[in-house]
Amino acid sequence: MEEEQQHPQANKDNAILDSLMTSEISDRGLAELGRLIVRYRDFPGAKDIQKKLQTLLTQWKLTEETLFEKTRAIHSQGTVYRSQEGNQEDWF
Fold it and tell me: What angle do CA 59, 31, 14 make, to 5 degrees?
């Protein structure tokens, strides 16, 4: 049996998911959900986060396929992770 691992971003990602679960659907929220699904896919642990990801998909009435269709369209515009002041990406 494989030992469960703790993801180094688990605390931060849990906080993001908690926020998403109590907010309305937005471009930023869809992008965050897609990003986290990719991060935790096939990760050997973080079952609580993986469960929240599935819960949020259900809550927002999405499948992974429809989520990724929406996020591809959002990312093609290139503005979801940009700051309001200019072109700097907001995680810098």
Answer: 65
Helix, coil or strand: residue 85: coil
Between the CA atoms of 24, 19, 61 and 5, what dihedral angle is there, to the nearest 10 degrees?
Answer: 160
Of 3, 7, 2, 89, residue with least CA distance to 53? 7
User: DSSP string covering 31-80, please?
Assistant: HHHHHHHHHHTT-SB-HHHHHHHHHHHHHTT--HHHHHHHHHHHHHHT-T
Tell me which amino acid residue 85 is. Answer: E
* Residue-wise pLDDT tens digits, 2-55: 678 899 999 999 999 999 999 999 999 999 999 999 999 999 999 999 999 999
Query: What pTM value is reported for the model?
Result: 0.83
Report the amino acid identity of residue 41. Answer: R
